[in-house]
Design a protein that fits this description.
Keywords: Hydrolase, Magnesium, Metal-binding, Nucleotide metabolism, Nucleotide-binding. GO terms for molecular function: 5'-nucleotidase activity; magnesium ion binding; nucleotide binding. InterPro entries: HAD-like_sf (IPR036412), HAD_sf (IPR023214), Pyrimidine_nucleotidase_eu (IPR006434). Belongs to the pyrimidine 5'-nucleotidase family. By secondary structure, this protein is α/β, with parallel strands linked by helices. Helices cover 35% and strands 23% of the residues. Strand 8, helix 7 and strand 9 form a beta-alpha-beta unit. Helix 5 crosses helix 7. It starts with a strand and ends in a 6-residue tail after the last helix. The N terminus is likely disordered.
Length: 345
Amino acid sequence: MGYRLHHYNHIFPISRTSFSSFRFNLRVWCCSQSGKNQGRMEQIVVHGSESQVVVDDSNLLQKKISAIRLGGPAKLQVIADFDATLTKYRINGCRGQSSHNVLQQEDPEFNDKRQKLYEYYHPLEFDPTIPLDEKTKLMEEWWGKTHALLIEGGVTYIGIQNSVAKATIAFRDGVTELLELLEEKGVPVLIFSAGLADIIEEVLKQKVHRSFKNVRVVSNRMVFDENGHLQSFKGKTIHVLNKNEHALDMAAPLHDHFDDVNGLSEEKSALKKRTNVLLLGDHIGDLGMSDGLDYETRISVGFLNDRVEDSLESYRKAFDILYLNDSSMHGVLKLVTHLCSTESD
């Protein structure tokens, strides 16, 4: 089954109550089989100078945008995946590193061992024939073995800093501006990752050169001794199949003043009152990141970075908005600007 892109020169009209001043070029993906139109599938593709975006149900999206705008920034929170969502999928034509792959141990033998684990377990992560409960056990096994190698190989905090400095990792264009806008509007951001919190925080420090008071990293967190050597990991392991809002119970918050139990409890309680969610992810499984939240309205934004034809059908149905081919974050920035604005803006 192939997809052919038909071009239209007119503009798709969006009502002011939903998109305000947004006006998008209309394109239509047509689903055909063996070159013949056997059934017709149409969806809106927003095409700008830097990206293509697929919106499968524009009426539903308009209703969600109106509802979130009505609630205002005080009821909004953002939940975002990190690898290949906030970060670029490709850098200079090559696959960018994940927050796990960034870390290079001093003894290359341990890097090789972790790479072999990746080559074995990664295909199993996406194998549709493996039942979910069995796949969950495999992911726990993978993460456990990887973390053991990091401890055995003698990771240090200085080594993390050096690894990030040399890493092929970068944020999508527009991410910094998005985080700044959300901080200005007082909208909390939860970064969920099955990677390493210490790596993610170091990437933020080195690539953005600032911290954000509204950002929390929910990921696997390292425990170092007084000499800066990795001793263990804090709490329950977070892997690709269990990273959701329940992980707040497992992970440490980003800032020291939330380390006390009462402070974290108060923060979780405040987040639950923010019942409108903007969710960002690059995998259909990322939609589960909001499972622990009793939300009223959720807009899900997906990034389909690779093999677009293979996954377009499933991704377009799963996400409210779908960005194709490793797009920038500028479209999301415009969306958030609109969601946090008033009718008079």
